[in-house]
Each structure stands twice: as C-alpha cells, then as structure tokens.
Design goal:
The protein contains 13 helices and seven strands. It is of the alpha/beta class. Helix 7 crosses helix 10.
Length: about 325
Amino acid sequence: MWGLFPVSLAAVSAYHTPVLIDQIAGLARGSRRIVDCTVGGGGHAERLLGEAVELLAIDRDPEALEAAQDRLGVERAKWLNLGFADPRVLAAVARFNPDFVLMDLGVSGHQLDEDHRGFTFRPGAPLDMRMNPGADVSAADVLGKSGEAELARIFRTFGDERRSRRLAATIVRRRQRSELTTSDDLVNAIRAALGPRTGPSDFARLFQAVRIAVNDELRALEMALPAFLKSLVCGGVIAVVSYHSGEDRTVKQLFREWASECVCPTGLPICSCRGKALGKVEPKKPIYPSEQEVAVNPRARSAKLRVFRKADAS
C-alpha cells in the first residue's frame, strides 16, 4: 500500500544538502504528522523526525527514495514512490491528516551531479531530466517532438527568455538535420540562437525550463497545493521552498487567495464566496537563505520559503 522499497544503497549523507533546514525545523516544531512531499535524500526528514513524529515520505525518484530509506531506516516512515500530485498520493495524504506539509521543489544535488540523469549542461550528458526515470517523456522527446510554438512557450514561460521564438526556431531547424540527444546539442542551439556570449547562467535557466516541461512541474504544484490544504488539520502548516519564478508565483498567488476573506470578482454588490480567510501567510514575506548558508551551499542562492498556516476551527 505504501510502496515500500528495499534498502540497497550505502549510507548517503551527502546525497543532497537540504536548504533552510533550521528555519523549516523551527516551523515544524511540535508537529506530530509530517508529510515530506519531496523527500530527496532524506536531509530535511532526518532533522524533522522526532520520537513521537509520524512521517509520510514521498518522492517520484526511486533512487532518492532509496537513499532516504537507507539514511533514515525503512521502519521510521511510510513511503510512496510517486509524484506528489498523483491521485494516490493525494488520497494517502488525506488519510494521514498531517499537521505539517513540506515541499522542496528543487532538483537534488545528487540528480545534478549524476550526468546519466541528464539534468546538467556538462558536456556529453544525455538530454533526460526525468524526475522519475521510468516516465515516458524525456528532455530529448520534448525538444524533438514539440512544435515550434510550444517550444517558444516553454522557454518564455519557464525560462523567462525574451528571444524564445528565435531559440525555438533554431531547435526545430537543427533537429531536422540530426536529433538533439545530449547536453552539447542544446547548449550549441542556445549559443547559435542567442549568441556566443551566452554562458552558464543562460544554460542553467533554459535547461531548467525544459526540466519543468518534462516533469509538468507547475501543473502538479497547482493540483497538489489545494488538496494538501484541505487535508491539513486546523492550525497546520504548509511550507514550500521554490527556486523558480513560476513556482514562486504559483505559491504566492495561492497563499494570497487563501488568506483573503473575499475572493469574489470585483464589482459584485454582495459577497457570494466563502466569506472568510482559510488561514494566513506567516511571515508575509518569503524567507531566504542566509549569506552563510549560500557560502556553504551555493545551490541554495535562489531558494525562497513561503509558509501558510491553516485557520483554527471556528
């Protein structure tokens, strides 16, 4: 039922360095039923687990889940090897009645460091980028089969690329000569379209855009967050760490709507919505990693933590 996996990896304490761990641990203090929607290598979960805490650990990457089990011990949690928006996960979370839900939306250090997973723009890496290696669609599929308009949308919406049409047209033109299968192919297409002065920050941004499309990440977030709020006990907390402007915008807009007493369209003479806030954003501004944390873990530099506390029963 819970998708348990046997433990076979050696201890992987450095699988991934968890970001904002002190702040997240502080937010979870006193919680008894915690859901870690993206358990990764178990770094956050290890800190959050206490003697009386029940943990539901979720990750669609079987390698990550196995590493977390090896780190924490299989018996210390209930495990689900599925994406957090999967209907089976949403049903399991509802049964679990959590008082704290954590979502860390980033790619793990292990995924980035392992070239065969295809998340990196280091030379020779395959264009894969699947969070679940068994999924049907890879980065090569997205780049090789999407229409020019769809590719432009991906680079514009997920990569904030103002020359998205030019890049999309370049990719379509190049794939007619030969398939794009490695990181070099996409890097060369980016340079051809955007100029030779493009560098690592551009590659990182545009590779991330493809990764978001491959894994349908924003739609999954939009589906999962309202379901998690419904499952959360009164007074419980949802904490979301995002690394991309689209992710953060989705979280910010949802939290703001939930914290509003009225969400009726402007101009209605009488309120016809729920008429009360579902909770509050606390703190009102996102929480950022400290300079010291970024110095130790540079991958934390773009992290933003937003927190929503569900209203008590009235």
